[in-house]
Amino acid sequence: QVQLVESGGGLVRAGGSLRLSCAASRSDFSINAMAWYRQAPGKQRELVARIISGGYTNYADSVKGRFTISRDNAKNTVYLQMNSLKPEDTAVYYCNAAGVWSTGGIGNYWGQGTQVTVSS
């Protein structure tokens, strides 16, 4: 199993910024893609941003130009810098990692989630 430990959520006013971090616990798991998803009350979980090997990134239209995903491969950590936050960004944010074990098996893992609340 891979533990994904998230941090950085909290309460912020509209227009403010937060940075989320997610660290993967196992070095024998080669991560091909890391992503952030979010789920607001009463809504389905949605992809916010993803970064894959080689540094290619993609974003939900609703966050383009405001959020930036980045990755520190040496630390097995992914970050989500969130600027110009809006009340509609309020949600529980989940980290996801997909990759291959050194033994050859594939895996897909989720963090426990971190709450982001943006007040108007």
Could you characterize what this model shows?
There is one protein chain. The protein has 120 residues and is an all-beta fold. The protein is 0% helix and 58% strand. A hairpin with a 4-residue loop joins strand 9 and strand 10. It is elongated.
Describe how the helices and strands are arranged:
Blueprint: E1 4-7, E2 10-13, E3 18-24, E4 29-39, E5 46-52, E6 57-59, E7 67-72, E8 77-82, E9 91-101, E10 106-110, E11 114-119
Low-confidence regions: none
Distance linking N and C termini: 39 Å
Q: What's the average pLDDT?
A: 94
**What percent of residues adopt helix (DSSP H or I)?**
under 10%
Following the backbone from N to C, one meets helices and strands in this order, namely EEEEEEEEEEE
β-strand percent reads over 45%
Instruction: Give a short account of the largest sheet.
Output: 7 strands, mixed
Labels describing this entry:
single chain; about 120 residues; mainly beta; four-stranded antiparallel beta sheet; about 0% helix
Could you provide a short overview of the structure?
The protein has 120 residues and is mainly β. It has strands at 4-7, 10-13, 18-24, 29-39, 46-52, 57-59, 67-72, 77-82, 91-101, 106-110, 114-119.
